[in-house]
Input
Amino acid sequence: MIRKLLFFALLLVFTTCKKDPEITHNGKHLKIEVFVKDLQVPWGMAFLPNNDFLFCERNGEINLKKYGAPDYNLIMFRNVQPSEGGLLGLAIDPLFETNHFIYIYETVVGYNQLVRLTMVNDVLTQDQILITGIPAANNHDGGALKFGPDGYLYLGTGDALHPDSAQSKTSLAGKILRLDRDGNAAPGNPFGTRIWTYGHRNVQGFDWNNEGKMISTEHGPTSEFGWCCHDEINLIEPGKNYGWPITMGGMETDSLTPAIYQTGFEVWAPSGCTFIHGKQWGSWENDFIFGALKAQKLVHLDISADGTTVLNRADTLTGTYQRLRNVIEAPDGSLLFSSSNVGTASPPPLAGDDKIYRLFWE
Output
């Protein structure tokens, strides 16, 4: 593969960037409280239909915080292989009240796998391992897992430190997969397989806007081929090749799909994300917000309705809670975001870390 190293030729995306804006709306101010503490890298987070909160930690714990309860309970432990892997994504089936299905993405010894669980009366049991043998490594295991508005399950994987696998349509590494409830290829997939898109280095999160446009976060290179940085925000469309490792963000040509935003030599390490819904958010409504691990902040982007253009960027809580991993919106319209400081040499964890925080209006 031809690897283009013409850094000076990069076309960077410039937008207005504001840091830690003072957000008020209808006379109210944004407030932050600790929702859960004393965790070890909380990753997957989701609300059940009854508003109970389910979340997992990378060390293998799946926890339940009942609606209105002050604390949480451990309800399942998975024997996982941590590092950048471990217990990663978690998704609740939109038909949970009927089928009781919950899905997790985890790293075990030698590979990653997608597992379906059932939950009845707050008891979790393993139902079936749906996909096994997804390439795994100490780094680049992906982790994004979410149901789309079409009712199918999407899974983001990493290249597992073998960059060329991202271009191989016979490998599940470096891909976004689109699946039915049994882990099979969803109808209408572009290659007749589980693969939805390919050419990804390390997909960490994705969500859909009000127009159904899918936007993802992806880590850029840290040292491969002498490349650095260039984290990506991508508009995900079926069958497209997002370029890794032929090139990196900002250098795509020919049939390769360019990022709608890439960071140049700024490093975010963007992770879990959501679109913000509800008029209570004022100027933040419909923004795409995500945690940034290396940059230690929340970043939110105003993205055009067609998903092709980043119109504005704002950085929030810079350095306040250090490494931030995932963001979801709660049923009451508040935002929950998680820190990811335990197990890192720098910066050291804050007291009571890791935590899940709640961001809301008051």
About this structure: The helical segments are 96-99. DSSP finds one helix and 26 strands in the chain. Residues 1-16 have pLDDT under 50 and may be disordered. The two ends are 54 Å apart (CA to CA).
